[in-house]
Design a protein that fits this description.
This protein has 24 helices and 26 strands. The protein is of the alpha/beta class.
Length: 677
Amino acid sequence: MPGDGPLQDAGGPSTLRRLCVYNGGFLTQPRLRRILALAGYRVSLGLPRSGDLVGVWGQSPTAHRGETMARRHGATLVRIEDGFLRSLLPGRDGEPPLGLMVDHAGVHFDGRSPSVLEQLLATHPLDDSALLDRARGAMAWMAEAHLSKYAAVDPALEPPDPGYVLVIDQTRGDASVTASRADRARFLEMLVFAQEEHPGCRVVIKTHPETARGHRAGHFTAADCNERISLLDTPHSPWALFEGAVGVYTVSSQMGFEAILAGHRPRVFGQPFYAGWGLTTDEDPVPRRERRLTRAQLFAAAMILYPKWHDPYRDRLCEIETVLATLEARARAWREDRRGWVACGMRMWKRKPLQDFFGAHRRMVFDNDRSRAARRAEDSGRGLMVWAGKADPGEAVTRVEDGFLRSRGLGAALIPPLSLVCDDLGIYYDPARASRLESLINATDSLRPDQILRAGALIRYLTRSGLTKYNLSGAVPSLPSGHRILVTGQVEDDASILRGCADIRSNRALLERARADNPDAVILWKPHPDVEAGLRTGAVDRPQRWADAVLGGVDMAALLSCVDEVWTLTSLAGFEALLRGREVVTLGVPFYAGWGLTRDLGPVPARRAARPTIEALVHASLIAYPRYRDPVTGLPCPVEVVAQRLADGQGPRPGPFNRSLSKLQGLFASQANLWRS
C-alpha cells in the first residue's frame, strides 16, 4: 500500500480547467461536480472559449449536445463515466459514485475508437513491480471481500451447484451494449453458443442488478428459460458464481472483466475494454488490440492508473485501496443489517448509537424480554442481537460489544462508540469458547502481503498519533528511574475479568503479584479511568504499599512510551503495549494472549494455535473484526477513518442528558462500594 499513513490519499490540483456541459445531471449531482473539481475541472454552463473543454456523460442520449458544441467551437470533448467500483447500490437508487473515468480520447466501452484506457493498455510499460504488486493485492481484496461495481451482494447466498455455464445479462439500452452493436438477437445468439459449446451443462443467466431492482429491463426473461436454463435475479456474489462456473459468456458486462480476474477466459460477444488482450475469447475482435497482457497488467491500467477515485470521508482524490476499504465497510454493513435486527439487553442511552450503526437499511427493534425478542426475530426474519455482557453462555445470538478504538472519552461517561464488534460465535473476552476474533487470528497465516502492509501502516499511525481505546489526556509526571513496569487496573466486575480470569480477579491481587515477582523493579500503578471517575468498582486501598508511583489521570499512550513492561489481567492496555513493542505479562486470558506475543501466567486455550506477527494480530482485531462508523458523515467506514477522526479530535461527545445519567450511574457505583465495604 502506498505511503506510510493509513490508506495514503492523493489530493486535487491547484488550478481548475473550465468544463462546459449541456446535461443537467452534471448540475444536480454534487458528488459528480466535486470529483471533477478535485480532478482539475470546473463544471460550467455557456459556450466554450479558447482552451475550454466540453464534457458529456459517456454516450448518453444527451451526449450529442456536447458533441455538437465541441465540433462547432473546436473544443476537446471529454467523456465521463462511473468508475468500475461505483457504489453499494446502482446509481438509480440515488447513491453517488466513488470514482469517475475522465477520458479525453474516447469512452472505454466503445471499441470502435481508442480511449485513454485503451492507450494505456496498448502502450504503457505496465512493468513496475510495485504497481503490479498493488494490482495483485487489490484483485485478491475484491475477490475476498466480494466487491463488484455494485457491492450490494450477499456472499452467504448459496450459489447453484457447480458445473453450470454463466451467461451475463445486461440492461436494454445500455450504452456499452449499443456501442458493441448488440441487441436482444445478439444476446440470444450468445445463449445458443453457451449451450452448444457446453453440451449437457446447465445454463445460469445472471440478471443485472438494475433489472433485479426493477429499474431497467434486461435482454432475457423467464420465457427464455427451460429445464436447462434458469434466471438468477438474487444478489449473489459474482465471485461465488465464478467459482462454480465452467464457462462465462458476456457481451460487454463488467462482470466479464471480473471473470478474468477470477481466472476465467470469458467468451465475449462485444468490444469492451478488456477484450483483445489475450485474456478473452472474442467473437468480434478489435484488430488494433494486439498486445498480450497479464491479469495484473489489465487491472493496473483499468483500476489504478485510469480512474479518478474519491474518498467520501476526507473529500479528496485517493488510491484504489481507499476505495476498496470504503466499499468493503459499506458492503459489510448492508450484508449484516439488510434483514434487520431485534436487539435485547440494550440500555436506553445505547439505543440511538446502535440504531445509527445497525439500522440504516432496516430500523432496529428493541425488546428487553428475551423470549419475546427471540420470537420477533424469528417471525420477521431478523437477527437477534444481545449486548455481550447480558448474553447467556452458549446462547445462539449475535453478541455486541465496544470495539478497541472506541471514542475520545469513557464509555461509562456515556460517550457513543465509534466502533462496535458483532460476534456470532462467542465474544472476544470470554476464553471459555471460541469467538469470531479468535477464528480470525487463527487464520492469519493466510494473510496477503497487502493486508500485512495495511496493518503495519495502521500501527504506525496509531502509535505516532498516540491513540488508545479511550484517548484521554493527561501529562506523564516525572517517573523513578529503573526497569519500569506498568500495572494497569481494571473494572473488577467487568465481564472480561469475570470470564477471563481463573485465579486472580482483583486489582489488589494483581499489584501484589507484580511486586512479588519483580521486587527490584519500579512498579507504576495506573487505576482504570472509570474507577478513578467513581463510575465503576475496582479501587485499591493504599496502592503505595506495592507501587512506587500511582498515575491517575495520565494519558495511556504517553505512559506506554515511558515503560519497559506491562502487567495486566485482561486490559486492552496490554494490546496497546504490544503495538509499541513493549513486553506484556498477562495473568488472565485477554484476546491477545496465547499467541506467542505475550508472557502468559494464566491458562490459555490450546485452540489458540497460530503464531501471528503483531501486524497479523492487528489486522484481525482492528481491521477485520470490528465495524466502524464515521462521526462526521455518519457512514460505515474503515478503521483508518476513525483513527484519523480520533487523532483530529472529531469524535462524539456526551450531551447534557448523557452527562446527567453518567453522574447518576457514578453515584450508584459509589453507594454499591460503600455497601460492600
